[in-house]
Amino acid sequence: MTLFNQDKDYIKRVNLALSFIDAHLDSNVLSLESVSEIALFSPFHFHRIFKSIVGETLNSYIGRKRLERAAAMLIHKKEFTITEIALHVGFSTNSAFTRAFKKFYNLSPSEFKNQHPYKFSKIGIVESKIGQENFMLESYFCNINNHLNWIEMNANIEVKQIPELHFASLTHIGVENIDKAFERIIKWAISKGLMQNSETRLARVFHDSFKITDANKVRMSISVLTKEPVLVEGDIHNLSTKAGKYIVGRFEITPQDFEKSWSGLFIWMHDNGYAKADSNPFEIYQNDMREHPEGKAIVDFYIPVI
Known about the structure:
The structure is a single chain. The protein is α+β, with helices and mostly antiparallel strands. The protein is globular, with a radius of gyration of 20 Å. It has helices at 8-23, 32-38, 43-54, 58-76, 82-88, 94-105, 109-115, 123-127, 132-154, 178-191, 258-271; strands at 155-162, 165-173, 201-206, 219-226, 236-241, 244-253, 282-285, 297-304. It has an eight-stranded antiparallel beta sheet, sandwiched between helices. The longest helix has 23 residues, at 132-154. The protein has three domains: 3-115, Arc Repressor Mutant, subunit A (Orthogonal Bundle), CATH 1.10.10; 123-155; 158-304, Multidrug-efflux Transporter 1 Regulator Bmrr, Chain A, CATH 3.20.80.10.
């Protein structure tokens, strides 16, 4: 969804609401009244404007985000029990959480935790039953090995401390018209003289994961990396990533290889004993792929880890 086709002041205020929701998913303060107050709208007008811009009602959005956060915790936070996760994302009972989760993902939380592709163990090959289950498991580990081989051949990976980074960003939802969002942020950056700086880079920050969120609902920040926060207006907003430890993988890839690269990097993370931190992954582009002789992007992928 191309948000910059909407009223820019409305987008600015809805962005405030989205940030507030992200920060308070584990609390009981996300009523229509409280969120609309953050966005400086009356509840009546906010309900209509939020749905127009985001594509779903406030209650539907909050409910989905809570279940998706639970799914992410089931993948990355193995130390938490399902009951603890249910309470963390705002459910008062385990049974209510299980019903809602199963309705959303068609799997119970325990089934999701056990079947999700990021969960794997080489011991499982020895322990599995013979027959079809063994064949499926063998095929699954072959796929993991293919991803790891892909990473080894196509990426330079480091784990390093990254300082807080600052971006001027444009909110985009879904996978359609991403090129127009980049054109919009580039045009804005040129008008501010930012593209004349040799250190300026385009970037994309992911607020959702394609593994647990429908592609047409994934929220991204299409961004320009700046040395420090800059003066923004309208639908352009400042965004900062947290300082900390990151897995950084540099790839030289075609657009078709982005998904494989991200999947492989997350498998590498698990295979090397790292766990994802709570902040957002992001990409920083080091070239204009249109100028590459093979049409490839040179891009750094960042996964925050603990």
